[in-house]
Amino acid sequence: MKSKKIALSLLAIVMVMVTCIPSYAHINDNNYNPRLTSLFYKADDNEIVAYYDGQPIQKKDIVVKTGEIKESRIIEIKNSNKSLKKIDINLDEVKTNVQSSVSDYIPSGYTEAVVVKHLGAPNLNQKTTDHYLTNDTGKELAGTLDFDLRSQFIWLLSGFIPTVGPVITVTGFFTSARDADLAKKIRTQTDRGYDVMWRCIETNYGTFHTAEYWGGRYIDLSLIDSNYATEVLVAVSYR
After folding, report:
1. Do residues 192 and 135 lie in contact, with contact meaning Cβ atoms separated by under 8 Å?
2. Of 52, 77, 193, 211, which is least surrounded by CB within 10 A?
3. Is residue 3 part of a domain?
4. Which range of residues forms the domain containing residue 226?
């Protein structure tokens, strides 16, 4: 009887270990990113998890640890979009139909902007927030992420006209940017003396970030309007 109890106890311990070990391993996995959802992890490598400048981003295009869109894919998209604009409209043969790019000047008296867009596609909802920032603001923003200065981070993004309060009060927005090593990406541009455009893409698959060169004058107001996705402009704010 005693040996039976011992055996049952050992079995219970083994069952607990089997249950807990996968969870423990998942938490300590260097490729685990809490800003990516379970939907992302369940997806296959070719599943579309976001859109960037009218082009699909697949799971395999994401650096899982940081949520960064791979630079190689961004370059590929920019080159592809340049080619599309030179085509004399025969878009029936082009699956990724992209509306003509529309850019606008920042109004006189302002030097920075925030542009917010919403996109709807099959199985995907997306919010894209583009922050067009001067070199000085970019440097300061990187510093707040380096030193975990949440309140200063929010202060730096305040003061746009009209307010971008709804943008910066999203739960986990600061933490997501910090975890994505956004500071390093921003400094890649500011250390060269450039202004920077920081893009935050939020979908039902997770949150993804990029930081790119910005020329300091134009903001991109182009929208996707195609048979696979529709995008609307939600807000344009200046500072």
Report:
1. no
2. 193
3. no
4. 38-238
